[in-house]
Automatic annotation (TrEMBL):
Domain of life, source organism: Bacteria
Protein name (Swiss-Prot/TrEMBL): Amidinotransferase
Keyword match Transferase: yes
NCBIfam families: citrull_CtlX
Length: 328
């Protein structure tokens, strides 16, 4: 088992997905598909999330799948931006930059966490939106649960005051840095350029232009004994950094998009496969919105509540337990 790799995730399946025009200004990863109608895009996204949920469950990951029928929430497929969970029974709820995304926060998701897992405390930072201060969860932060470091590419989606408050309350050390693509556009979310696993990290180090700071970030990432897999700018653009390590009963898997997995070279794949299996999920429509598999999955780092199993008259008839896909 690894404290870095959760065994359960929350996944949102939207009925009205579309790339969000309100977030396009600072999300250089976002694109528009002019070959399909909005209705066709929405149907394809719904089907991609369904297939991803089934693929994760088949691999042994517990998936809590929530449907979203609200036509005003086109980005709700990315729940990792509005909440995160932490060992010790803690949940954080975050302030979102775009007003169009603030209604994605759902009480039923938090209630499910309280029902199925041991939740001691929910810390809600969303009121800071009124002050124009934002911190978009594990999109803006890539959390090292081993070394307790929060890696953050500076942007207006990661307010330094909110970041410091989160780190103080949740026991992380902030490591902020400037990162930009080849055109000089700042990276909008850290998790598109960096993915941390237990034994390795996928990182677009070249996007950190300051060489001294780049070396400091690399040392911090490698500190727990990780091997750094350096990504090219082209691989970052194809979401190779937007991956998440997950724990299953048969070992760890690295969930990433089929597009991202396809751009890895043989050496990179070999390094990954020394400690976990690559689990490619085909989400090309979702990626139009500028995020990929890591953005879609909110990992659950909480302790499950014990399951009460009814005792039948004949013990041989006791139910079996399998990975659960909970639909709400």
């Amino acid at each position: 088992m690894s404290v870095q790799a959760p065994s359960s995730v929350v996944l949102i399946r939207p009925r009205h997905f579309t790339p969000n025009p309100a977030t396009a200004a600072d999300n250089a990863f976002q694109t528009v598909d002019r070959t399909r109608s909005p209705a066709e895009v929405a149907v394809a996204a719904y089907e991609e999330v369904t297939a991803a949920a089934n693929g994760l469950a088949a691999a042994g990951v517990t998936v809590h799948l929530f449907d979203d029928d609200d036509s005003t929430r086109c980005d709700s497929v990315f729940p990792n931006n509005w909440f995160s969970t932490h060992a010790g029974g803690r949940v954080a709820v975050y302030p979102m930059c775009s007003p169009s995304r603030r209604t994605e926060r759902r009480a039923d998701v938090i209630e499910m966490l309280k029902t199925r897992y041991r939740v001691q405390d929910v810390v809600d930072y969303s009121g800071l939106e009124l002050d124009g201060a934002y911190l978009e969860g594990t999109g803006a932060m890539v959390l090292d649960h081993l070394s307790r470091v929060a890696f953050v590419a500076r942007s207006h989606r990661a307010n330094p005051i909110v970041l410091e408050r989160f780190c103080t309350q949740f026991g992380y050390e902030a490591m902020a840095f400037d990162a930009s693509d080849e055109a000089g556009v700042p990276i909008y979310h850290t998790n598109v350029m960096m993915g941390l696993a237990s034994r390795f990290a996928l990182v677009g180090l070249d996007l950190i232009r300051d060489l001294r700071r780049r070396a400091e970030v690399a040392r911090a990432i490698a500190g727990p004994g990780r091997e750094i897999i350096e990504l090219t700018t082209a691989q970052v653009a194809d979401f190779a950094g937007n991956a998440i390590e997950l724990q299953t009963p048969t070992g760890r898997v690295l969930a990433m998009s089929a597009r991202a997995a396809g751009i890895l070279d043989a050496g990179q794949r070999a390094t990954i496969e020394r400690s976990c299996r690559i689990l490619p999920l085909d989400v090309p429509t979702i990626e139009l919105a500028g995020g990929s598999v890591r953005c879609m999955l909110a990992g659950i780092h909480l302790t499950p509540r014990p399951t009460v199993i009814p005792v039948p008259e004949h013990p041989a008839l006791a139910p079996e337990h399998t990975a659960l896909v909970a639909s709400r």
